[in-house]
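On clarity, I found the account of how folds are encoded harder to follow than it need be. Since the whole study asks how a given chain folds, the encoding of that fold should be made plain. For illustration, here is how one protein appears when written out as sequence plus C-alpha cells:
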Amino acid sequence: MYSERPEETLRLLQLCSPTLPVGAYAYSQGLEFAVSSKWVFDETSTSLWIQGLLENSLTYLDVPILSRLYNGWSSQDKNEVLFWNDFLFASRDSKELQEEEQQLAQALSRLLVDLGIAEAGEWKKKPRACFLSLFTLGAVRWEISLHNAILGYLRMWAENQVLVAIKLVPIGQTSGQRILSSFTSIIPNCVTKGLSLEDEEVGYTSPGQGIASALHETQYSRLFRS
C-alpha cells in the first residue's frame, strides 16, 4: 500500500477508515445469523467464515466489479459505471444486503460531496446505488491507484467482519488481530485472481451468506441492522 505520493496513502487511509461515517458498523452481512446458528462459534470458525467469503465471494464479485467501476470513472464512461453498479446490486441476494448497499452508498455520496467531489451528489437518491460505486469514485478523484484501492477495500471489509465477530461470537481483540494477520497473504491473492477474470466469469459464489442474511431479517433477537 506504499506510494511515493503520501497524499495517495493518506486519502486511502481516509477512505478505508473505520471512522468513515457511512454506517457500515451497523450491518453484519449474515454473520449474526451464522453465530446464532452455531455455524461460527470460535476464532477458527470465524476466520474460516471470513476467509471463505473473501476467496469465494469478494474475489469473484467485488474485486472485478471494483476494477470495472474504477475504469469507468477514470474514462468518464457513465454507462459502464451504471452497468456494473446495477450488476452488483442485482448480485446482492437478500433484501438486507441490498438495503445495506443503498444506505452506505447514499451516506458516502453525501460525504464525498462535502469533501469536494460534487458529482457524487447525483447518487444521493439513486434507488440501486452501491457503496462500491461511490468508493471507486472517491478513489479515482483522489488519485488512489486501482491496486491500492482494492487492497484497502478488502482489508476494510475484513476488519468490519472481525469487529462484528468480536461483539457476537465473542472473540477477544487479540483473536481478532490474529485473524486479520492471517489475511495478509490471502488478500493479495484475491486481488490477483479477481483482476484476471473476464466479464463472463464475474459472479457471486457464496449462497450461505445470502441464506444467513435473508434469515437474519426474521431473527428474534438482533444487535445488527436488518
Remarks:
- The chain has a mean pLDDT of 90.
